[in-house]
């Protein structure tokens, strides 16, 4: 019994990612076809070479048929997975295990979400008959995550205005990064004052504190590490994959104080153990984290071990996580600016790690840390909310560990 | 000796100023305010709140053997509304719960039926008076509820007011009426029924006094209730009681709550009557009824925890008239660009009735951890099926964190959401109601209140919300 990890046993050798945004003229099928096509092209293979698929979507389709129908795949195994906003990462995790097990030579992880056909603002929950006993109560996603802000401010002695400055700085940073990303939903820098004075959505959160609601798809091709150089001279090796579904006790237990995600702490520690990382802030070249709302990114800096408890806000303010900071976080703009098509987001994060570690990111958003010799990237993907969530952490690297 | 053993009143938090109605619609000013049920209240939820006040003392719930809910504004037809009250109060399965619904006079009917019942009876009067914009019911009406428990004397739950006598006269009379589904009552010319009511009141009062062998001059508190304002005023003036015995009708502050008005006025008198004093309640409407009570020595120690006067004093500043109109469905505001709210589903609601209606959580027998909602598996020690029921409706708490949700679909945006940490353990995230954004703050003290959270697809959803602790009674009254 135990979790062993699959460090350096599988590699990503091809990826695709559509632009994210309000794709009024493109269906989920269109997005899937484009992301999958780009992935197989980048690996120099065809769909016939893929042995099995793990397909993630939160609510844009059910079953493997959603993918196999769109691509008319000839009787290939397609597994549809769903794990809230961590769906895309969950597809990748299972594809990696399938290859590591020896069951398949080439697997694809693909995620998609088509959110902008609903006509609603924000996310619309999937109705499960049974909500009728009022066990959880109605709350929108921004309101749910906004619960973090007053709790964090109260615990660490920040005035409301100071807290607003901190989260504003996070949104500003991610918009700066997104402005340097042609695939991002929002490609303009936004002045701090405009972010700060934007209409309020929930609690302290203005519209610029919320991730973009968008459509998009991303895909990755996974092979055994020893086969990786057959496909590319710059494969990305999987160092760690960890996943934690919380006990959902944060809304039951007064001990939980809304300034952390215990699930993230657990999944990060497990990922660092698998990857052999002892000082993530110094060892990682970049991190792609689940900045669904700006207070989430703040708390994640502490949960992922990038900042000391209660100090994350200072590091945010000093620019430590900026593109030119000591640990760039969300250099592609994150959920905030790249957009958040739920089932695709985890693979989109991996797409940025893929670009940066291979030196393929556009020059204006290339992180310096890779050239300085760091070769590891982290992706973190979260579903749920404060008190009850699922959390995924991966570490990937451009070098095999000695 | 049987009599009244407990009572409780519920005056909703919100107020509408009559001058604001006049300012919006034109016309003459008007004075004072009326009580307004929240957007998340109806006659059923207000009945629960009043009954919770009446049943606050230990052991009373177990004694109740029947429950009547009287209202002219039932939340449902066909389906019984009293069963929701029964569930919210956690009364025994064998308690008869039935509505006396439709007419304003059902309030008198429920009171008299309870007063002369051979078994302990909880009777609740609840009403929500709306009418149409600019109409008399809008400015003269009021919303509220009152609950009374009649039964025999017991140590710990003594009779607080003896029933000396009662009398009712019935008269088929086209004074006030409303067809099912109509938004507003119609009334005949006021002077037509005035003389009739004065005469009927005299008949009932005389009969009751004769039965009790009392003189009209011995009445210490003379309460006259009814929607025929002019007749009520004349009865107060001409019945022959001592002028200082005539009690105020409270309409200046909370309006006339129709079916519930006799209950609210009686509760207000019970809040201050002294032992030995005689109370006469006269109710006009399709006849007349009289209930003669005498306060016992036990009354001062067993008054309701929340006096009517304190609830009036704790009311909100006048609300915008437009808000009132939108709450009552008279101003159709554009909904947010969000999915329609979900209605409750019958099977999960039914299998968790104790939680949904009664706010009964569970407590681990092994480690005492409270679980809201009730769980089978302990989140702390992981024991399975080692839970006992843990009623939480009466437990107060403190806000751990909060938010103001401006995106959520609610009849009264924005939605206030609080995470409540309960005294003695346990946590739940829920809405904060009867509150402004300033009331949502870390550390704020809250209590639970039974509400109609939403009506979706023609189904009412009843559940509990937190509200700020406002009325003055000391912590831990329950």
TrEMBL record, chain A:
Signal peptide: none annotated. InterPro entries: Thiolase (IPR002155), Thiolase-like (IPR016039), Thiolase_C_2 (IPR055140), Thiolase_N (IPR020616). Residues 10-193 form the Thiolase N-terminal domain. Residues 257-384 form the Thiolase C-terminal domain. It holds the Pfam family Thiolase_N. Keywords: Transferase. One of its GO terms (molecular function) is acyltransferase activity, transferring groups other than amino-acyl groups. CDD domains: SCP-x_thiolase (cd00829). NCBIfam families: PRK06157.1. This is Acetyl-CoA acetyltransferase. It comes from Streptomyces pseudovenezuelae.
From TrEMBL, chain B:
Residues 396-451 form the ChsH2 C-terminal OB-fold domain. Residues 359-383 form the ChsH2 rubredoxin-like zinc ribbon domain. GO terms for molecular function: acyltransferase activity, transferring groups other than amino-acyl groups. Gene3D superfamilies: 3.40.47.10. InterPro entries: ChsH2_C, ChsH2_Znr, NA-bd_OB-fold, Thioester_dehydratase-like, Thiolase-like. PANTHER family: BLR3430 PROTEIN. This is Hydroxymethylglutaryl-CoA synthase. It comes from Streptomyces pseudovenezuelae.
